[in-house]
Automatic annotation (TrEMBL):
GO terms for molecular function: inositol monophosphate 1-phosphatase activity; metal ion binding. Its cofactor is Mg(2+). The keyword Metal-binding applies. Mg(2+) binds at E74, D89, I91, D92, D215. This is Inositol monophosphatase. InterPro entries: Inositol_monoP_metal-BS, Inositol_monophosphatase-like, Inositol_monophosphatase_CS. The lineage of its organism: Bacteria, Pseudomonadati, Pseudomonadota, Alphaproteobacteria, Acetobacterales.
Length: 265
């Protein structure tokens, strides 16, 4: 392993510890099941006290551990620049978290320039931790993962993320295209976990028309390591603003891409 690769591996191990502690903080602050706890930024777009607390916790820890690294958070924006840059979504799936549901995660990705190189996604309420280091594998709770072997769209399970930034007509058009393939549609409320589900074979594909870097930064190394087909999210503007993503197992990727008119290249 080169010295640079060793530096990434060391950072990933440190990030794993920091994210574990951040997940414990989020669990301690977790609302009880019921009506949403938090403030509504816009339709179905929630912010809780935990989002800010978890992001601040991770930001402080990473600054102490790696003061030379850049840092970008969903809530705080780009706090520091650096060749290596951490990108955090403190609570991905806030609408679920705010209602005491289980499908949410803490997501922390590492970019080397404009290349995702490592990531940690922890879903504390589910007892699951995904890790990946490009060139060194992708894992769920320490065990290697792989994409689904499903080849027929009529046997596929496809998730599509919803956003109030997408016109209803566009969402319905894409969802209709998925169903016309014969695939089973899903929508779970966490982009990071949906992408991780593609990486481990629980889903055959995931689509979101408008999604941000912090939602996908930790998942992109997972997808790369398992050979998933992924649209060029970063090249299409995802480094600096919202963009569209399609990720799928390679057996159905072309059919899904054609059906929903989202190019893979």
């Amino acid at each position: 392993m080169s010295s640079h690769s060793s530096a990434i591996a060391y950072r990933l191990e440190a990030a794993r510890s920091v994210v574990r502690d951040a997940g414990q903080l989020a669990m301690a602050m977790r609302p009880a099941p019921g009506g949403p706890a938090g403030t509504q930024k816009s339709a179905q777009d929630w912010l809780t006290e935990t989002d800010g607390a978890v992001e601040a916790f991770i930001a402080d820890r990473m600054k102490t551990l790696f003061p030379e690294d850049g840092f970008q958070g969903e809530e705080g924006g780009v706090a520091r620049d650096g060749q290596l840059r951490w990108v955090v979504d403190p609570i991905d799936g806030t609408s679920n978290y705010a209602r005491g549901r289980n499908r949410w995660c803490v997501s922390l990705g590492l970019l080397d320039g404009d290349k995702p190189v490592a990531g940690v996604i922890e879903a504390p309420a589910l007892g699951e931790v995904y890790t990946a280091h490009v060139g060194h594998g992708a894992f769920l709770n320490g065990k290697p993962i792989q994409v689904s072997p499903v080849k027929e769209p009529a046997s596929a399970m496809i998730e599509m993320g919803w956003s109030n930034r997408v016109p209803r007509e566009v969402f319905m058009e894409k969802m209709d295209a998925i169903m016309r393939l014969g695939a089973m549609p899903r929508s779970g409320g966490s982009g990071a976990l949906a992408l991780a589900d593609v990486a481990c074979g629980r889903l055959d594909g995931y689509i979101e028309i408008v999604i941000n870097l912090w939602d996908v930064a930790a998942a992109l190394p997972l997808l790369a390591e398992v050979g998933a087909s992924v649209s060029p999210f970063l090249a299409n503007g995802g480094l600096t603003g919202p963009a569209t993503i399609l990720a799928a197992n390679p057996h159905i990727a072309e059919a899904l891409s054609a059906a929903v008119s989202i190019p893979l290249k």
